[in-house]
């Protein structure tokens, strides 16, 4: 009986050792900001943080004037309901324009919210449609998408129209242990063109204005590291051993309880 118990214990320990091989990840590869200097300072360029309007953006535009009737017309129901969770506004069409009451077509693509508001104000004044107009513009469908090796991949709505890369990753539940931290991909649309940037979460490049501050409709993809591929290979290779070990454990256990 003692011999059977020793054999059973040895096989159990071997089984656990084999299982542990499938969960080894270098802890050093899980940290962020490892190559940054201890102390550093960077100036934030607020102008560069201004999001530029793109095709398919949905804009909420409120116009106030001293005349109540003019204000009512300018804010009339020409805005569309997009069906995206009840979001309504002016859709930037494929030409990069929106259509406003009294004003007509207005170019929006490539402008910031401040620039578009200024353009609408100038048009109202030049056409003598309103006196002292006040124009406010918001992007109501501001969102970023996080894909790949994160805990909760998906689309993240951004109601306040500003989000940093660390905030977006936190909203997605952070990278998994198998996320490749030194080669993250950023996909962005700029002036009708799709551009890509690759960066490391461990380098000061992360704090570049064009990376750290995400823009509307940005896509961030975290690819799997070599550990995941190796883990998948090990799992496939070890499956027969698991079944064999489990079968042997059952046989030894049955023999053990008989004695």
Automatic annotation (TrEMBL):
It comes from the Bacteria. It is found in: Cell outer membrane. Residues 50-139 form the Polysaccharide export protein N-terminal domain. It is a multi-pass membrane protein. One of its GO terms (biological process) is monoatomic ion transport. One of its GO terms (molecular function) is polysaccharide transmembrane transporter activity. The chain crosses the membrane at residues 238-257. Its main location: membrane. Gene3D superfamilies: Outer membrane lipoprotein wza domain like, wza like domain. GO terms for cellular component: cell outer membrane; pore complex. Keywords: Cell outer membrane, Ion transport, Lipoprotein, Membrane, Palmitate, Polysaccharide transport, Porin, Signal, Sugar transport, Transmembrane, Transmembrane beta strand, Transmembrane helix, Transport. Residues 1-27 form the signal peptide. Residues 143-222 form the SLBB domain. Belongs to the BexD/CtrA/VexA family. This is Polysaccharide export protein.
């Amino acid at each position: 009986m003692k011999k059977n118990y020793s054999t059973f214990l040895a096989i159990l320990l071997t089984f656990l050792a084999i299982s542990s091989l499938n969960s080894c990840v270098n802890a050093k590869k899980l940290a962020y900001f490892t190559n940054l200097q201890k102390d550093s300072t960077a100036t934030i360029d607020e102008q560069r943080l201004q999001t530029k309007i793109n095709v398919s953006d949905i804009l909420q535009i409120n116009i106030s004037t001293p005349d109540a009737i003019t204000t009512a017309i300018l804010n009339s129901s020409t805005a569309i309901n997009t069906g995206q969770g009840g979001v309504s506004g002016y859709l930037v069409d494929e030409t990069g324009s929106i259509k406003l009451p009294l004003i007509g077509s207005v170019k929006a693509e490539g402008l910031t919210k401040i620039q578009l508001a200024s353009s609408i104000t100038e048009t109202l004044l030049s056409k003598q449609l309103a006196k002292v107009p006040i124009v406010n513009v918001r992007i109501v469908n501001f969102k970023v998408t996080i894909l790949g090796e994160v805990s909760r991949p998906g689309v993240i709505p951004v109601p306040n129209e500003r989000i940093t890369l660390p905030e977006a990753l936190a909203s997605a539940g952070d990278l998994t242990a198998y996320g490749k931290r030194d080669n993250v991909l950023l996909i962005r649309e700029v002036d009708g063109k799709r551009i890509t940037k690759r960066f490391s979460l461990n380098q000061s490049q992360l704090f570049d204005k064009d990376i750290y501050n995400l823009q509307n409709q940005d896509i961030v993809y975290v690819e799997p590291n070599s550990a995941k591929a190796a883990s998948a290979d090990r799992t496939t290779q070890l499956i027969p051993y698991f079944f064999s070990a489990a079968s042997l454990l059952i046989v030894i256990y049955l023999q053990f309880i008989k004695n």
